[in-house]
Amino acid sequence: MTKIASNLNYDALAKLFWVQGFIVIEDFFDTKLMSEAQSRIMSHFGESPDYAHDQHFIDLSKTEVIPWFPQNEGHTFFNTFESDTRLKKLTTQILGEEWKNQYCMVMFSKKGSKGQAWHQDCPPENNTQFNLNRLLYSMDVDEELGGQVYIRPGTHRLGALTKGPLFEDFDDQVVLSPKQGTLVLLHGHCWHRIGKLNGDYRVSTNYRAAPREAADSITDICVYRNMRYQFSTAQIVG
Ligand SMILES: O=C(O)CCC(=O)C(=O)O
Ligand SMILES: [Fe+2]
Asked: Hey, what CATH topology would domain 21-236 get?
């Protein structure tokens, strides 16, 4: 029998989110549903798709990941997760009554991927302007596979990333190994990176949301240790 997280203490989870900048809930979605998601994702990508970003961006940002926005192509199956009552309630507890869904972005990394360098998903100068990553894992991500999620707790309050090595190990970093069905909620200003992939491929799915006052283009500029990169213009902007 599959188990799903019920009886969630929404208030305690939201408080923990605001202290740490992230929370992890295992077995949020059942493994059968996640396996269905995984097989739909794999049939879209195949095992070795081409990178969508331009090579200059990949070289500078060390972001070797291929995005897919299934809802924009009418894949209504992916609405299932977004409309989950528990996910909506948890989001409301964290962001307040008024928040908006942004988009669902599936991210695929293939064998040999260096992962993703330390970054913030959007500029951290204004604390009302942020995105909330709601990450779902449809396959196990562990030490053997690589591609683990590195986070520096509390850094959503510290402003911009410092300059330094793009994949630096910090004493206070935590390393997550999300299993199939795990939900990770992560503040877009909280410093995070993805480790090098050892296995054949890695998949994650991000149902991004944002507070009402956040600009719709909030994640257009991503902050790295060596640059700020604007996706819409494919330019380095700082
Ligand atoms: O793929 C992941 O686990 C997280 C990737 C990431 O940095 C993000 O979704 O903002
Ligand atoms: Fe990110």
From this structure: Jelly Rolls (2.60.120)
Closest ligand 1 atom, CA of 119?
7
Position 7 scores a pLDDT of 86
Protein residue whose Cα sits closest to atom 5 of ligand 1: 194
The residue ranges of every structural domain in the chain are: 21-236
Residues 6+ apart with CB under 8 A from 120: 160, 161, 188, 189, 190, 191, 192, 222, 223
pLDDT tens, position by position, 18-57: 999 999 999 999 999 999 999 999 999 886 666 556 666 6
pTM of the model: 0.94
Number of the ligand 1 atom closest to the C-alpha atom of 147: 3
**Could you tell which of 192, 201, 202, 221 is best to mutate to test the pocket of ligand 1, judged by most ligand atoms within 8 Å of the CB?**
192
CB 182 within 8 Å of CB 72: no
Write out residues in the chain with pLDDT < 50, as ranges: none
Residue to mutate, 66, 177, 186, ligand 1, most ligand atoms under 8 Å from C-beta:
186
